[in-house]
Specification:
Shape: elongated
Order of helices and strands: HEEHEEEEEEEHEEEH
Structural class: alpha+beta
Number of strands: 12
Mean pLDDT: 89
Low-confidence stretches: none
Number of helices: 4
Distance between the termini: 55 Å
Radius of gyration: 32 Å
Helix content: 25-40%
Strand content: 35-45%
């Protein structure tokens, strides 16, 4: 009976020991992915910012500029692209909506971001765009890969439509969460005017005729939870200028926007709580269960060997019986 039990335990030991690396290195990369129907929004604020008044063409100090960012998963578009891409694809339709202290629109820039649901690498397909202009992204945007590494990544900048390195600057703690801090600097670059302008009658075409151009620079900062690859906090030191042309009335340049854009406090708390919850799910597949199965397999193997040894131990010797006296023959 002990021999049979030891063989059963040995089989379970082999099963759980083999399951441990399979779960981490085979199942996790295939099961961990961004859902195609994900929706999220984020509100950022730049307090005591500088904003251009297009009515007077003069920069003025304002108490607050608000940036509302939304990301909406387009399931229909992702399913269509998956048929030719041959992999799980996520399509995010995003909108960056900027409004002044009076609640009126400053600009709004739509964007379609197409990427691999597992690795977050960009997928090039029809419809990939920024503000209606086709783009071919390289590098990540919005989210880092699962199990983010301590290294530099290539990050796509929506304003310039170009990719630049975003540098790993160290490991920190943010609201009780271990995070990797990344920073990217975009030098002064001439960019496109938004197609939606705050003043009626002003368009990209009319601005082009004046010869006035718009330039932009930013220092982009992200605090990324490495297990999920999700930023728990982000901010930008953002500047835009109008330069040259007849629109400025002889001036060389004028500030269009300048401010430190930060996530609003209620969204920071919500994001941290959400990332903590998702982090537990990812660790379940990458750490808790694989190590648990490995330890369970080792324990079952030890118990199997113990029972096998017990089954092979010789029993106590049988008691000797006294021999009956044999008859004496003459």
């Amino acid at each position: 009976m002990r021999r049979k039990a030891s063989l059963i335990l040995l089989a379970f030991a082999v099963f759980f020991t083999a399951l441990s690396p399979l779960l981490r290195w085979y199942a996790f990369p295939r099961l961990a992915k961004i859902p195609a129907n994900q929706y999220q929004d984020m509100v950022l604020e730049a307090k005591d910012a500088t904003l251009l008044d297009y009515g007077t063409m003069k920069a003025r100090k304002v108490p607050k500029v608000t940036v509302v960012q939304t990301l909406k998963g387009n399931v229909e578009a992702s399913e269509k692209i998956e048929k030719t891409a041959g992999r799980d694809v996520v399509v995010w339709d995003s909108l960056s909506y900027i409004q002044g202290p009076d609640g009126k629109m400053v600009s709004k820039i739509p964007e379609r971001y197409i990427f691999d649901a597992h690795s977050q690498e960009p997928v090039h397909a029809t419809g990939e765009m920024v503000d209606g202009d086709p783009v071919t992204r390289e590098g990540i945007e919005f989210k880092w890969p699962f199990m983010t590494e301590k290294r530099d990544y290539e990050y796509f900048d929506m304003q310039t439509r170009t990719t630049h390195p975003i540098h790993y600057k160290g490991t920190q703690s943010f609201r009780g969460v271990k995070v990797y801090y990344f920073e990217q600097t975009i030098p002064w670059t001439k960019v496109h005017f938004p197609k939606a302008m705050p003043v009626k009658g002003i368009t990209q075409e009319s601005l082009a005729k004046t010869g006035t151009t718009i330039w932009y620079t930013t220092v982009r900062k992200f605090w990324v939870e490495p297990v999920t690859g999700a930023p728990v906090y982000g901010e930008e030191i953002h500047k835009e200028e109008l330069r040259g042309g007849t629109l400025l009335g002889g001036r060389d340049k004028v500030t269009a926007f300048s401010g430190r854009v930060k996530m609003r406090e209620d969204y920071i708390k919500h994001t941290v709580d959400l990332v903590k919850s998702n982090r537990t799910l990812v660790l379940l597949m990458t750490s808790y269960l694989p190590w648990g199965f490995l330890l369970l397999g080792a324990g079952l193997l030890s118990l199997s060997l113990y029972l096998e040894a017990r089954s092979r131990r010789p029993g106590d010797p049988a008691p000797t019986q006294a021999a009956e006296p044999e008859p004496v023959t003459a």
